[in-house]
Amino acid sequence: LGSVVVGDDPASLIYQRGKGKAAAEAGIEWFYKQLPADVGQDALLQVVSEMAADDRVDGILVQSPLPAGYDYDYRQVVKAIPAGKDVDGFHAENVGGVATDGSGIPGCTAAGIMVLLDHAGVQIRGANATVVGRSSIVGRPASYLLLARDATVTVAHRHTRDLAAVTRTADILIVAVGKPGLITGDMVKPGAVVIDVGINRTEDGICGDVDFASVSEVASAITPVPGGVGPMTIAMLLANTLMAAERSAGITTW
Ligand code: NAD
């Protein structure tokens, strides 16, 4: 698993350390490159191309966001990663494969949400699932995976007129927005399963998008923040790397 970080943003470095440690624990070799913030788009693309050509590397990550104030284009960087090594699931070929026939490498967070639901024995087929947030990193891929599993999916976002009316229909409520306390108990159907993807740094520490105190009174199950979806994202990164390695070795069990 190859990882590239540009700059020295403390949060990015913490994420990288977590991923590197998890990879080592799983017996996955970790190739880490930290580049100066001003390395530039061309040099970054060169490093990605070298990893792309390296047979020892089955999966490639480039930490986003790239440093502000420089002329970086993250989409071009993602394009430079061969789809088969794009273990973040960001490449258009993987997104398309997930959205159509399920063949693409799925986004790690969305895939982790599905594993959490399955592990908890949640019935997905026929359930009303509402995803709040439509980012290409979380909301959209989560909606594709839920649809593929026969849920009735509603995607809400910043222009949704009456958010509570939409969230109250959900048997499965997935929230990926980045606004602490956005979802309160009165917005949740009794018995719903609530997955809180948000990671917000506040004066009181890290919290999600869901007001845990009020929602946990109403929901039948709810993920905590921290400790819920976050660790699953890293676990699925390792699973995606294994899938990429097996595919490139011609093992087609995935
Ligand atoms: P983003 O900023 O790209 O997207 C946010 C989405 O929320 C947008 O689609 C926007 O339309 C919607 N939104 C904004 N305000 C809203 C409102 N008032 N009502 C309804 N929808 C609203 O964010 P992202 O990258 O998807 O991340 C969302 C959150 O999830 C962040 O807190 C991020 O840190 C966290 N996150 C966690 C993990 C994890 O592993 N747990 C992974 C990725 C992102």
In the predicted model, the low-confidence regions spanning at least 5 consecutive residues are none
C-alpha Rg (nearest Å) = 19 Å
What small molecules are bound in this structure?
Answer: nicotinamide-adenine-dinucleotide
Number of strands: 10
Strand content: 15-25%
Oligomer: single chain
Helix and strand sequence: EHEHEHHHEHEHEEEEHEH
Give the overall silhouette.
Answer: globular
Largest beta sheet: strand ordering: 5-4-6-7-10
Helical stretch count?
9
| Derived structural class | alpha/beta
Cα end-to-end separation: 18 Å
Chain-wise SSE layout:
Layout: E1 2-6, H1 10-25, E2 31-35, H2 41-53, E3 60-62, H3 74-80, H4 92-99, H5 108-119, E4 128-132, H6 139-148, E5 152-156, H7 163-167, E6 172-175, E7 193-196, E8 200-202, E9 205-207, H8 212-218, E10 221-222, H9 229-248
The structure holds nicotinamide-adenine-dinucleotide.
Q: How would you describe this protein?
A:
- The strands form three sheets. Strands 5-4-6-7-10 form a five-stranded parallel beta sheet, sandwiched between helices. Strands 2-1-3 form a three-stranded parallel beta sheet, sandwiched between helices.
- It is an alpha/beta fold and 254 residues long.
- The longest helix is centred in the last third of the chain and has 20 residues, at 229-248.
- The protein has helices spanning 10-25, 41-53, 74-80, 92-99, 108-119, 139-148, 163-167, 212-218, 229-248, and strands at residues 2-6, 31-35, 60-62, 128-132, 152-156, 172-175, 193-196, 200-202, 205-207, 221-222.
- The two termini are 18 Å apart.
- The chain has nine helices and ten strands.
- It binds nicotinamide-adenine-dinucleotide.
- Nicotinamide-adenine-dinucleotide is lined by residues 109, 132-135, 137-139, 156-158, 160, 163, 176-179, 182, 197-200, 229-230, 233.
